[in-house]
């Protein structure tokens, strides 16, 4: 780490104590840009990095809701409106018991740069609640979503802040949230993305993150004289991103060898078949757990990272792949990691992967397909039009290609190039130039 990076981190750390995930994300970006930033006197004088590491605002609220026994429960909700320098705040909502302000700040910070890379006019935000949707009945989920929106409604809108899904928030929850938004605001416009396709949602939004991740991976491999077809791909997670990454990976001729959840890993030694995936999607849709699956072999408490794989696509959660996992993957001869989740590697794992010269696409680049199609959903809502799945998929591919090509075009010397640094630098430059132009913003 150079001196400038140490100084930036020291200053930001002092203001954000006990926020490990947020500091991890800030450290990664500042490390990536430090060589370039140390030559930018004007940006340093204007304290652009420090200002960017301070959210525009954090809204925190109580969500009271009645459970099926009639007992009133309450949770904490947040919306971190991190930066609207490049467009209205945009980013997902996460419902999970491990949600904290630090987690949402890291996700909101990452979202600024991810959205910048898409080239679409979107700022960065994230929100959610420490509500645990697991084990809740459909009516409890509905009452919770309504109460959440009762507070959030006053802070969002198509030109202000446009939330979407994330862990624990899929099309069902977005539709419940949007329905309540309509009742409260009496305005039909695209204030949320990820809606059902028959009421303003975009074709391919559900699939976009997983598909986009595989499109990015194929482009990255081709650029490095490798191919995706026939490769053994280990995937973690069994949610929206993981299942659609698996679908596209099969489509592209790879051998998918795993899925996982917080209970353990489901292994397909000879590769998952399309029919296996359809059955898994169906029982996951009904709330089934991988451990109950009669397909593949389930290993309790294990992760996919000890498998013999060429490509790893982590699609579960932050810091799910640690130093020991990275060592296993390196020893197994891994070629590439392409992140479907946000910040799935610990800092130690990330360093190990870099030291061993493995291709590593950071989530802010490789999982940007979801928010990119959310951006296309906003455009369709504004135009009062719906585009075909073919058209949206084509645009998604083009956006993933252009993100890849912008990253490899950054002016980092070839021998030091990494996709992590390239993504951070390309994204940061665009946001920083807006900050500069806006003055004391
Ligand atoms: P889902 O809620 O659909 O699925 C999450 C999956 O990850 C589940 O299988 C879940 O297992 C597993 N998981 C969650 N927490 C843990 C944990 N602590 N340990 C092991 N497994 C865990 O979420 P998504 O698929 O939408 O999101 C997955 C990741 O992708 C997140 O990092 C999210 O931020 C990121 N992402 C999502 C986008 C989207 O469009 N949805 C866009 C870009 C990034 P279990 O059921 O056991 O909890
Ligand atoms: O992390 C992410 O990019 C998302 N959860 C999707 C955000 C969005 O606004 O579609």
Shape: globular
Q: Please write the string of helix (H) and strand (E) elements.
A: HHHHEEEHEHEHHEHEEHEEHEHEHHHH
**Which stretches are low in confidence, meaning pLDDT under 50 for 5 or more residues running?**
none
Structural class: alpha/beta
| Highest-level CATH class of the domain at 208-356 | Alpha Beta
CATH architecture of the domain at 208-356: 3-Layer(aba) Sandwich
**DSSP summary, beta strand count:** 12
Q: What would you give as the CATH superfamily of the domain at 208-356? A: NAD(P)-binding Rossmann-like Domain
Gyration radius from CA atoms, angstroms: 21 Å
Strand order of the largest sheet: 9-8-7-6-10-11-12
**Which ligands does the model contain, each kind named once?**
NADPH dihydro-nicotinamide-adenine-dinucleotide phosphate, (2Z)-2-iminopentanedioic acid
Largest sheet features = 7 strands, mixed
Helical region count? 16
Mean pLDDT: 97
What is the helix fraction of residues, given as a range?
40-55%
The span between the termini is 28 Å
Give the amount of beta strand, in percent.
15-25%
Looking at CATH, which topology of the domain at 208-356 would you report? Rossmann fold
């Amino acid at each position: 780490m150079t001196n400038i990076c140490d100084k930036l981190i020291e200053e930001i750390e002092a203001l954000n104590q006990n926020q490990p995930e947020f500091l991890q994300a800030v450290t990664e970006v500042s490390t990536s840009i430090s060589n370039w930033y140390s030559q930018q006197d004007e940006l340093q004088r204007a304290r652009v990095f420090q200002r960017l590491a301070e959210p525009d605002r954090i809204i925190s609220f109580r969500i009271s809701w009645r459970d099926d026994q009639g007992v009133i429960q309450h949770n904490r909700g947040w919306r971190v409106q991190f930066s609207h320098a490049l467009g209205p705040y945009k980013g997902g909502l996460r419902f999970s018991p491990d949600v904290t302000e630090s987690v949402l700040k890291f996700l909101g910070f990452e979202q600024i740069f991810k959205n910048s890379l898409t080239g679409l006019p979107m700022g960065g935000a994230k929100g959610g609640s420490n509500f645990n949707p697991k084990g809740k009945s459909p009516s409890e989920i509905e009452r919770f979503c309504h109460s959440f929106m009762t507070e959030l409604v006053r802070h969002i809108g198509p030109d202000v802040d446009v939330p979407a899904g994330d862990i624990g928030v899929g099309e069902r929850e977005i539709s419940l949230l949007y329905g309540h938004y309509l009742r409260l605001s009496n305005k039909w416009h695209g204030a949320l993305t990820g809606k059902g396709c028959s009421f303003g949602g975009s074709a391919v939004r559900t699939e976009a993150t997983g598909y986009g991740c595989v499109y990015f991976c194929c482009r990255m491999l081709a650029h490095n004289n490798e191919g995706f077809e026939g490769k053994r791909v280990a995937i973690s997670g069994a949610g929206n991103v993981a299942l659609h990454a698996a679908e596209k990976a099969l489509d592209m001729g790879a051998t998918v060898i795993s899925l996982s959840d917080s209970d353990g890993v489901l292994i397909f030694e000879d590769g998952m078949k399309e029919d296996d995936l359809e059955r898994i999607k169906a029982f996951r849709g009904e709330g089934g757990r991988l451990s109950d699956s009669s397909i593949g072999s389930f290993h309790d408490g294990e992760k996919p990272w000890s498998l013999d794989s060429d490509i790893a696509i982590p699609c579960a959660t932050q810091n799910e792949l640690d130093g020991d996992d990275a060592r296993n993957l390196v020893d197994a001869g891994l070629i590439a990691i392409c992140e479907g989740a946000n910040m799935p590697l610990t800092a130690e794992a990330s360093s190990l992967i870099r030291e061993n010269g493995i291709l590593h696409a950071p989530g802010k680049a490789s999982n940007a397909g979801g928010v990119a199609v959310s951006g296309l959903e906003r455009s369709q809502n504004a135009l009062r039009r719906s585009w075909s799945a073919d058209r949206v998929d084509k645009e998604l591919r083009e956006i993933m290609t252009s993100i890849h090509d912008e990253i490899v075009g950054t002016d980092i010397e070839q021998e030091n190039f990494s996709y992590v640094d390239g993504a951070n630098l390309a994204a940061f430059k665009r946001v920083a130039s807006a900050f500069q132009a806006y003055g004391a913003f």
